[in-house]
## 1
Amino acid sequence: MKPFLERLAAGEILVCDGAMGTFLQARGLQPGDCPELWCIDRPDDVRAIHASYREAGSDMVECNSFGGSSYKLKHYGLEGAVEEINRCAAELARDVAGDRHYVLGSMGPTGEFLEPYGEATQEAMVAAFAVQARALEAGGADLVIVETMTAIEEAAAAVKAIKAHTAMVVMVSFTFDPQLDGGYATMMGVRPAAAAAAALEMGVDVVGANCGTGPDDMINVVAALRAGAPALPIIAMPNAGMPVLEAGKTVFKESPEQMAAKVVPLVEAGATIIGGCCGTGPAHIAAMKAAVAGL
């Protein structure tokens, strides 16, 4: 398998996968359950979701490890199982990926605020992310994405841990929301250009955005990221449109065909890796893969 960064440097556009939580829920995950624990308790279900994305054409298999930090797992009384859960998450993804696809570890926000806004210290957060990162690499992850970030300081803590303790390719992805001035910012007020500049300082291999917006807004976000970091590869993982409530349920209504139609504008804006977040499924990824193949 050709090294990941070499493929990006050669100008190839790669495809990531889509939503995980939606499909865990479809298989029986209940409110209040720990999604990451399914890697241990219901591995066949997790493998099946991974396989559906691989068969749809994804170039990488993303681990079910988004909430795998000790901070998040503590809510379920599982803070002592960080290594086991993350290692298992990567092993399941590797089972499906084989030697023809990359395994992408997922590391999401802790849900805590760093000092002085909260009680978490930089040292403790780096240590927590380090445990998760080492376990993902031990399970077979080639790459890792620090995703859905809103604060530069927390993203930097995760990246520091990964780079100090593993040899994985590092991506960092922020979540931006539309602003009244027509621009975009994270919940903590970080603009795309500032996020891109911070990513350069962190020394990451890829910067990007996920969740928060549908593909139309994501095109603008990617362009802003590209302006802030002209040389960095960019990953774009939009939702399947903006959520709407129907019969009391949250629904993402962008169709696979509609998502695929945004692939060319995303690439023209600067995206080099394209996938999906909330509301996207294997059909979306298959359509987007076909669009990439037609470039």
## 2
Amino acid sequence: MAEAARKEDVPARHPRLARRLIGHDDAERRLLAAYAGGRIPHGWLVTGPRGIGKATLAYRFARFLLERGTPAEADGLFGAPPPPETLDVPEDSRTWRLMAQGGHPGLAVVERAWDDKAKRLRAEIVVDDVRALHGFFGMTADAPWRIAVVDSADEMNRQAANALLKMLEEPPKRSLLLLVAHAPGRLLPTIRSRCQTLKLQPVSPEAVAAVLEEESVVIPDADRDLVVALCDGSPGRAMALAEGGGAELYRKAAALLEGMPRPDPAALHGLGETVSGRQQLDDFRLLGDLLDGLLRRLITWLATQGGDSGPVGGEGELFARLAPRAGLDQWIEVWENTGHLFARAEAVNLDPKQVIITVFSRIQAITA
């Protein structure tokens, strides 16, 4: 079965196209050990923050298994070859080519489907998306394994989750479910209990920098350190920041906080204009993410009495001046309300500029 297709173009940096996975050697060794020992669970749950390489690892393991088969099949007439040391697959192989094209008969992908009426991706994975796997697992494929990647599993609704659970309870022979989850706590406990969990951690700044170089992401020298500091160990987030002008958005937001309780009105309205309009939706989301991080680090700084100044240079001085102007409970309330406001803005089409003005007005009110 071919991988599920979307109406939109496949991104140039789709996880299945990644040639390397940087910073997760321990996770790869664990998968290799399961393969070498012939003890591959029918379900793997790959967890961790967004953008750190979970889907990339899932596709790497799927490609490896579809290329290698099983350890027994890999044994030749002249004895077993040495166990593989990496999940790498030659880029000139048939397996790599078919997966890159989205047409490998042994791989199915479950993800949010395209809504023709709304002209956007659905908000969740629905039961029909999962039920399609019944036919896939039941067919005879020209492949040593039948593997399904669910990305991401925490986007399934209740009916879809129950349908997936039945497959985990009665897995077909030589089948594998690779579940990618940003928030595994949202999954049914019974799904979690039937999967082997592989938790990925944020990677080091050096690994983030290596991924940026690997992906040929162009970042001005003045922004590079800031982008790496802001990404929280997530190479995917670092790429989004670099390509979305995240460093400049951060500087504008930080400057408005620096001016509290009397922020520059022109700068505030200018920031609102920057992220307004349908073409600026990604900028609006990125600014919301940056504000969430800024307020979260400020709260941590205040709760630890300055013991944690955050990973971003210069924030310690900003927090030392600004944080004591309001109580911890007030900052937490502003932080929570900011997250709710950004989420609601997209759901009910609130004016992005007014959202930005409201957020900073609330900060101004508690710091005056």
## 3
Amino acid sequence: MKFSTKLIHSGRPADSITGALTAPIYQTSTYSQESPGSPRQFEGRGLSYARTENPTRAGLENALASLEDAQYALAFASGLAACNTILNLLKSGDHVIAGRDLYGGSYRMFTKLYTKFGVEFTFTDITDMNEIEKAFRSNTKILWLESPSNPLLSIVDIAAASKIAKAHGALIVVDNTFATPYLQSPLKLGADIILHSTTKYINGHLDVLSGALVTNDEAIWKELKFYQNAVGAVPGPQDCFLILRGLTTLDIRMDKHCTNGKKVAEYLDGNKKISRVYYPGLKSHPGHKIAAMQMKDFGAMVSFDLKDKAQAVTFLKNLKLFTLAESLGGIKSLVCHPATMTHASVEPAMRLEAGIGDGLIRLSVGLEDPEDLVADLDQALKLTLS
């Protein structure tokens, strides 16, 4: 099936009991068993306890696997719950390589939680293959990539980075949240595990928290599945239903997101008072050629630099249509100040080294009319920079 057809049909068979075209929400915590230790079977899954299996969640997992042309997917209560489950693969003394401009929540988990368990981390420029190669150690187990990255929209050559990691026997994790399965297919580029915050574009309506992991490796899936059940950070059936509903329009939404994102980025890039715009769709972006090769389109996340925090705060106050809020990927346009919001847990020196300055603004461009969005940015910038 083609991608658009999968969005409508994968994980959504008609209810076998009633024939309902919308998959039921199995709002239950447990299931009756015909004999001890013999769970009921439903579409190949044993139903004993809802933390272990839930048919609504199974439908979502099947749909996500299908969209990534993968064999396996697991759903979680948040993107960070999915992130944590990957790190459960590690033991004390293991080493992880990740990008400097990593999502702040992932950085916090790495440095504030897993380092106390003896896991080691190196943060480097993952757009530079030489820097990745130099960062590897004999105990490196994971190369952790974001492309595009959060919040600087850096682009990683996933295929080239994956070759380096495989040569060292390390797993390749790609956070595909910004791109979604519609724009990018990391497994086809060499990744072992795809991470999604399905809270974002995959759901798309700013009304649910969830995450997901996708892989083609049965051994990895079995271990991740064990941790999913053992730790228990699973989404409820209502959340799974909402994500399944949101998925049906992912392609249509992403096309509009990308169109709007490009128009906003081009407007900002044409404003001589803005020192730098971060958007891989601009030919001036250092990762533009790689993004054009490995992505269908360039997404709708746009960042840009203002002079300092004071100027950034003034700009944020002047906006009328963009909503100041964390998160991204929804139908409504959002604006964020990474230094004090999404990346507040990153030490100032580390943030500045990564290029995340106090004047950095991150936009999640929504589905409004692009002329209205540009007009809002224009009036706010004129008031701020006049």
## 4
Amino acid sequence: MPSRRSISTPILLAIGMIALLIVLTVGWVLMSVFSAMEDTSHSGWYWVLLSIGTTFIVLLLVGVVLYLILSIKAINLTRRQSNFIDSVTHELKSPIASMKLYLQTLDRRRVDEQVQADFHRAMLEDIERLDRLINQMLDAGRLDAERSREEIEEIDLAGLLGDCAAAVAMNYRAPSDTVRLDMEKCVVRANRMDLDVVFRNLIDNAVKYAGDPPRVEVVLLSNNNGKALVRITDNGPGIPKHLRRKIFGRFVRLGVELEREKPGTGLGLYIARNLLRRLGGSIRVRDPEEGPGTVFEVLLPGMINKHV
């Protein structure tokens, strides 16, 4: 498992450096003894030990550098996990507190039918929010699961993207034209569940961070190399170039978690990138041709044709 490897590697590296340090100490003592003896018969051993000691010093320095790199990665991972815990705690606590308040109000006093309907709708939204959070965490946990060949099927990509856009717009109670679709019909061979998770995450991310009013465009194009190209563009503030690779890391969210206004766990883009890799696809981030915003470009293999 990745977690076990991340723990065992620095431990083995530390043991190796300690062993090298012990050997160097013993070697240094032996060289000192040979030098004190001033016996020319030992001059060959002296240079052999000197060469071995120099090699061990170089290896020790390399080990120190590697250990420092692993330590920095561990610190960054701990920070991301702390942000993840903060965000998940907030995502769990807010809807639970909201539903508790609504239920206490309904239990302690009578309200008219319209208010009851409003309370029920708000509680349903809170439940949907919890359901999305749990599903996202389950998706992250299933990334290492094997996919059988039977789960690969022919998928109408334009139809799937339309369904994902409609679902995201409904979740945000946004007008149906918030996500504009411009598509060529094409069929790809892939796992439907994986593609649904990928594009729901990407479109959800685009709507969440879009400007006011939000404008999101999803464009589907065919490619001469038998691939489908999907561009998802928003009119949000954009992502700095030096952070564009970082955002696909696990638990990564830009900024300080407790100062954020947007909900999330830092898993959406991580899940999307890893699912696309498993499908043989790729994802990249770039600037739009005009104005502020972000463009996510997804390249999918396995396109059969562009006519359904």
